[in-house]
Amino acid sequence: MKHVFYIISFFITTNLISQDYLLNFIEDGTEDNNVVFATFKGTKIINLQSIEMTAKDELEFIISHRFGKINSGIKDVFGLDYGKIRMSFSYGISDDFNLGIARSSYDKVIDASAKFSIFKQGNKSLPISIGSYSALFLDPAISVNSFNHRLSYVHQFLFARKFNQNFSMQLVPSLVHYNLVSSSLDNDLYSLGLGGRYKINPSVSLNLEWIPIVSSDNYIESFSVGCDIETGGHVFQMMLSNSTAMYETGFISANNSLWKDGGIHFGFNISRIFDL
Amino acid sequence: MHYRIIFFFILIFTANNVFSYEHYITRNGTITLNASTPLENIDPVNEYVSAVFNANTGDVVFQLKMLSFKFKNALMEEHFNEKYVESEKFPKSIFIGKLFQGDSLLIIQDNEIQGPNDSYKNFKNVIAKGEIQIHGVTKYIEIPGNIIIQKNSISLDATFAVNPYEYNIKIPKIVREKIAKQVIVEVKMNLFPK
Q1: CATH number of the domain that B48 lies in?
Q2: In the predicted model, what is the mean pLDDT of residues A270-274?
Q3: Fold category of A2-275 in CATH
Q4: Does A273 touch chain B if contact means CB atoms closer than 8 Å?
Q5: B12 vs A10: CB contact, 8 Å cut-off?
Q6: Looking at the complex, does the CB of residue B74 fall below 8 Å from at least one CB of chain A?
Q7: Residues of A in contact with B170 (CB under 8 A)
Q8: What's the whole-number mean pLDDT along residues B30-44?
Q9: Which residues from B are below 8 Å from A8, CB to CB?
Q10: Rounded to two decimals, what is the model's pTM?
Q11: Cα A22 to Cα B56: distance, rounded to the nearest angstrom
C-alpha cells in the first residue's frame, strides 16, 4: 500500500508543475548588457549638446531659430520680427563618432565639430554615459589681419544619466578658449552646464538648461526652458532662453540679455534625420 | 518492503531517463516582425529568441527581449523601444503554451525522432495554444505552424498576425499611415536536445 502511495505522489507532483518550469532552461546565463537608450530625445538638450549621437551613416540636419526679445512689445510681435538662424549638419561616421559643420547668422560664425560617445550607461554596469564634444569657431566679422585671431574653441565633456524612463540629467563642464579677447578678460573660460529633461508622455518632454560660468563674473549666464515634441523622424524643440546665439562660444559667453528684465528669446530647433 | 520502495524509485527515475530526448532547446531562434507599408519598410529581426519544447508533454515556451529586435533604421529602433513597446518597462515577451496536433497534444516518441536513416524527416502541422504576453498584456492565442522532426533537431516555423492595439500599444496619428495595422510575426527556429 505504501509504495502505491509513493508512486501516486510522484505523479501528482509532476503534474502540478506547469509549463513555467521550462523557463528555467532558458533563463540562466543570457543576462547581456542593459545599455540605456534615448537618454534625451535629440542630439541637443536646448542649446547644449546632449549625450545622444547621430547614428552611423545618418545625416542630421538641424535648423534653429532664435527670435528677438519678448519685451520688445507688440510692434515687433514680441521679437518675432527679428530672427537669427543656424543651420547645422552632423554626420555619423560611426555610432560613437560624429562630425558636424554649421553656419549661424548671428555674427556669421562658422563652426566645425567632433563628438564622441566614450562610455554608455549600463555597459558593464556603469552608472553614467560619458561623451565629449569639441568645436572650432571662425568669426569672420572680427576685423583683424591674423586669421588665428578669428578663431575660438570649445571642449566639453558630457556626463549624462538616465535616472528612469522619464527623467534624465546631464552635466557639461566646458572650456571655452578665445584666441583674441579684450585686455580685461581671460582667454580661457570655464563653465559647468546643467541640463535635464522630463518626459511627460512618450512623444513630449520638458527640458531645462543652465550654464553658469565658473571662472569669471564678467558674463551673463545662459538659462533656458524648452519642450521637445518628437514625431517619426523629426524632433521639434521649442524654447525660451536669454541666449540668442546658437553656437557654444556664443551661448556660453556672449549673452547680453537677462531673464529678470524680460530679455527672453523665443526659439526652436527642428531636427531631421536622413538615411544615407 | 524497503527494497520494494527503493525499487519503485529506481523504476521511476529510470523511466524518466528512457526518453532520451525530453527537452529541445534553442537560444538563437529568429522572429521577424513586419509592419511595412508603402511609405516605410519596418521589418526588425530578433535573432536571440529562446525556446524550450518538452517532447513528452507538448509543453512549449518562447521568450525574447524586445531590445534584441534590430531595425535597419536606428531611429526607428529607438522609437520602437521607447515609445511603442516600452522596453524598459516591459523588457520581455513570452509565450507559454502547448503544441497540439488536431485535438491531441503533440508528443514525440523516440521512434519518431530516430528514423531509419540520417536524412529522416517527419513533417507535422501543429497549433500552439497558450498565453502570449506582450507589453505587459497577456492574451490567449492559437498559432498554426509546422514542425519538422529530424534525427537530431526539431525545426519549427509559424506565421501569425498581431494587432498592436490589443496589447495596449498606442500609435500616434501622425505615423499611423506609416505603420501597418496588423504586424506579421514570423517565427523560425531549430531546437536541439538539451
Answers
A1: 2.40.128.110
A2: 92
A3: Porin (2.40.160)
A4: yes
A5: yes
A6: yes
A7: 202
A8: 94
A9: none
A10: 0.81
A11: 13
CB of A233 less than 8 A from some CB of B: yes
Residues of chain B with C-beta less than 8 angstroms from the C-beta of A95: 74
Q: What are B68-110's pLDDT values in tens digits?
A: 999 988 889 999 999 999 998 999 999 999 999 888 888 887 7
On whether any CB of chain B is under 8 Å from the CB of A95, the answer is yes
The residue among A194, A248, A200 whose CA lies nearest residue A64 is A248
Question: Is B14 among the domain residues?
Answer: no
ipTM over 0.85: no
CB atoms within 10 A of CB B92: 14
- Asked if B75 lies within 8 A of A7 by C-beta distance, the reply is no
Contacts of B37 in chain A (CB under 8 A): none
Residue B2 lies in a domain: no
What domain range includes position B161? 20-193
- CB pairs < 8 Å spanning A and B: 84
CB within 8 A of A132, min separation 6: which ones?
A: A115, A116, A118, A155, A156, A157, A158
Counting the structural domains of chain B, the total is 1
For chain B, counts of helices (H) and of strands (E): 4, 9
